[in-house]
Fold this sequence. Notes:
Blueprint: E1 5-8, E2 23-26, E3 29-32, H1 50-67, E4 75-82, H2 88-98, E5 105-110, E6 121-128
Parallel strand pairs: 4-5
Antiparallel strand pairs: 1-2, 2-3, 3-6, 4-6
Amino acid sequence: MADKATPITIDPDPLAPYAICPGWRVGDLIFLSGQAAISPDGAIVGEGDFDAQLAQTFANIENVLAAAGSDLSKVVKVTIYLKDMANFPKIVEARRRYFTPPFPADTIVEVSSLALPELLVEIDVIATA
């Protein structure tokens, strides 16, 4: 029998204007859409400030995971999109701050742009319930 796919909902949902679901739960797996420095009311947080954007991005990840009945300790895969790979050391620090061993599998790539020009980082995760 196939696992039922259930959308994850949050209120307010800053991704709704972009026709994006915050994530999906399929069986015991949770797939988040890319999270970025967008406040619950839809405003960009920390324009030009990588640290502020990274903190908001992780706050958003935690919020969506909580709505799905999960948390950062259950993240098994992380994909990180950076506009500037010079911020890689800050990503390593953040992984140590937000995750514990054994650390999630990870992919990190530098991109020329993200969905909104002010965004410096976007992260999507896969977690267990």
